């Protein structure tokens, strides 16, 4: 009987030990999951965003600036830093780096090397410059006075909203979609197979060459959007 009691006590202790180990494992797993999200504490003001490489950036306009990286940022060969008001984000890892950014104001968006930037809400800004290179893409909704866009290298820009003035320069198979964007004054320059989508019509350099004034067809198409 004594031996049986001893065996029973041993079994109980083993069971308790197993429960402790399992509970500890769950805590470690939870901690590992939490480490996937990294909030950067740098509070230097940001009004420019530059993304490069295998990254996707979700941007919102709000009163309180914040930067959150949805990955084990410190364990990757990635860069996220603020320099002279510019938030620079870059990564060339196989897994895409996702970053959520909230800013009060925005003056410049730059994207290159297949980076993507998505605007979550409408940005109300005075002036904005957008530069895209090497298969980058940007999709934003704007309410702005002056918009300047320079697109090249098979990049794509999707615009929604409105601007009082806009200047667009597109080359090298770049594509711009302004079918849901209106502007009162515009200067559009397309070259080297670049194209622009206006309403349901996609205009290329060959289309506008039919006009005596290379910009006439594009300007007429833009007027129909307003």
From TrEMBL:
Which domain of life does this protein belong to?
A: Bacteria
- Protein name stated in the entry: Putative auto-transporter adhesin head GIN domain-containing protein
What are the Putative auto-transporter adhesin head GIN domain coordinates in residue numbering?
47-199
Q: Which InterPro entries match?
A: DUF2807
The record lists the organism as Pedobacter cryophilus
């Amino acid at each position: 009987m004594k031996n049986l009691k001893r065996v029973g006590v041993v079994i109980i202790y083993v069971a308790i030990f197993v429960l402790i180990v399992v509970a500890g494992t769950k805590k470690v797993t939870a901690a590992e999951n939490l480490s996937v999200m990294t909030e950067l504490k740098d509070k230097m003001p940001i009004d420019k965003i530059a993304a490069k490489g295998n990254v996707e950036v979700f941007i919102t306009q709000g009163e309180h600036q914040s930067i959150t990286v949805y990955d084990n940022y410190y364990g990757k060969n990635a860069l996220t830093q603020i320099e002279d008001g510019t938030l620079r984000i870059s990564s060339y890892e196989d897994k895409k780096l996702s970053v959520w950014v909230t800013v009060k104001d925005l003056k410049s968006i730059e994207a290159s090397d297949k980076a993507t930037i998505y605007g979550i809400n409408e940005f109300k800004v005075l002036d904005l410059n957008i530069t895209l290179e090497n298969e980058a893409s940007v999709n934003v909704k704007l309410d702005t006075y002056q918009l300047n866009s320079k697109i090249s290298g098979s990049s794509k820009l999707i615009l929604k909203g409105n601007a009082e003035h806009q200047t667009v320069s597109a080359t090298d198979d770049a594509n711009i979609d302004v079918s849901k964007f209106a502007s009162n004054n515009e200067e559009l320059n397309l070259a080297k197979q670049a194209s622009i989508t206006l309403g349901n019509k996609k205009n290329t350099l060959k289309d506008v060459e039919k006009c005596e004034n290379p910009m006439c067809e594009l300007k007429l198409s833009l007027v129909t959007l307003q």
